Amino acid sequence: MNPPAKIMRKGELTRAAILEAALQVASRDGLEGLTIGLLADQMHMSKSGVFAHFGSREDLQIDVIKLYHANFEHEVFYPSLKQKRGLPRLTSMFLLWVNRVSVEVASGCIYISGAVEYDDRPGELREKLSWMVTTWQQALRRATVQAIDCGDLKSDTDPDQLVFEMYGLILALHHDARFLKIPGSFERAQNGFERLIKHYGSTVMVDPVDPLPKEQALFTN
């Protein structure tokens, strides 16, 4: 490896480390709580050193939500694609989503906190965050439509309504588990999803739906 390549590799590693630290700060303090100065202190770097990797505070914030989105896809979306189309895949998406919320109880969900921070603040950051959340909702809708087509859900199921109710369960879970710290919140979210599926489920199921193994669903408080 020649010297320029070594320098580039070191720069990439430093940038990745800064981003990971920035993600932790944003999860805890919100995207607006993320500053170049705070990161510089945390990384034991100069402000100019941190600034050189991103160019602006907004660029840093955008890269942080991109990293969050990539992590979300890696932990929730892509593993669910390994499940059979229909209810097994939709169930996996919801349970892994709940599992991720259980990990984020101590920090926070940027999709949710970001919506509060930027609901009435126009700009590129809001647009990108909105696109990411919409992309996830569209993935849930596709999985719902597939479950209808497979006969796992009733033919008259409204995909948008079901996704709305699933999202509502997650918002309630985040509120009760993180803000109110109510015991049993994760079990209630799981029970709520099961009731939804019972309501929308077809009376003729081609295959039974097997829940995720317990070790894949951390319903702990």
From TrEMBL:
InterPro entries: Homeodomain-like_sf (IPR009057), HTH_TetR (IPR001647), Tet_transcr_reg_TetR-rel_C_sf (IPR036271), TetR_C (IPR011075). Keywords: DNA-binding, Transcription, Transcription regulation. SUPFAM superfamilies: Homeodomain-like, Tetracyclin repressor-like, C-terminal domain. One of its GO terms (molecular function) is DNA binding. Residues 12-72 form the HTH tetR-type domain. Residues 35-54 bind DNA. It holds the Pfam family TetR_N. It comes from the Bacteria. This is Bacterial regulatory protein, tetR family. It comes from Solimicrobium silvestre.
